[in-house]
Amino acid sequence: MSVVIVLGAEGFLGRHLVHHVAADPSGPHRVVGVDRHARGGGGSYAVDLRDDAAVGHLLRTERPDVVVNLAGVVEGTDDELSEINVELPGRLMRMMASWPETRDARLLLLGSAAEYGECDVAQDECAPLRPASAYGRSKLRQYERFRAVADAGGQWVALARPFNIVGPGMPRHLALASFAEQIAAAGGNERIRTGNLSAVRDFLDVEDVVTALWHVVRRGRSGEVYNVSSGVGHSMRALVEMLVQLSGRELTIDENTSASAGVPVSVGSSEKLRRETGWAPRIPIATSLRRLLGQG
């Protein structure tokens, strides 16, 4: 039986990955969920991932075959972003490489499409990295740490770069989750308020994303970066209109066109991931939006 540690197991992506790996027919796998907010017991640990001693004790006790680091923060001060998005994965790579209990384990780090910044065409892994946000810059710094370790060799480590993710359990501060919540709460002939909807984004269902991450762990190559994306761009306006249509309600979209839309276009190419691991997305965007509305 392999031991799989998921750091950030109580987050949106973490909960889905824990369930996916536990149900994987290639197992059995014993999945150990680790999160600061974990309740403990039943294969989960409540650990502050900034505590090196606690993380080290966990790793040396569990002797994992796989570690997936999904811990991260999207907003905060530069110091907060650096501590979790840069320093934590850096320390994790050093710790795992230094101990015989973890030296042979596979480590998957989570990057972000935010590392690419603005683009006009679907970005592959060779595209220039020009992050436009503090979050993207922190993920770029993580990549630089990853690249140094991977180039040195001697440790299995890969990095996945998901684009936008949609599905049940999405944090409420994310745009599509906020829109779905407004739609669910609205009566007939009401308005839902949005920011600027001109941006084009590449969305994948959360189940397709966790399947991709597990494909990288099982079939990917050490030292490689893999985009996790559909390769299809959708305008945010089209997605909001689809949510309204799926809800069956007569609602007016009140768009604040003067607000910033962020990076105008963010679409990724996952050709490398598909070619090397056999992964392919399976869930249509309409199905993902229906599930987000609680309809399936």
How would you portray this structure in words?
With 296 residues, the chain is an alpha/beta fold. It contains 9 helices and 14 strands. It has a single domain, classed as Rossmann fold. 39% of the residues lie in helices and 20% in strands. The strands form 4 sheets. Strands 3-2-1-4-5-6-11 form a 7-stranded parallel sheet, with helices on both faces. Strands 12-9-14 form a 3-stranded mixed sheet. The longest helix is centred in the first third of the chain and has 21 residues, at 78-98. The mean pLDDT is 93.
Give me some keywords for this one.
alpha/beta, Rossmann fold, three-stranded mixed beta sheet
The main β sheet shows up as:
7 strands, parallel
* DSSP helical segment count: 9
Helices and strands: which structural class? alpha/beta
Q: Average pLDDT, to the nearest integer?
A: 93
User: Which strand order spans the largest sheet, edge to edge or round the barrel?
Assistant: 3-2-1-4-5-6-11
Count of distinct strands: 14
What distance separates the N and C termini?
33 Å
* Silhouette: globular
CATH topology: Rossmann fold
Rg from C-alpha positions?
19 Å
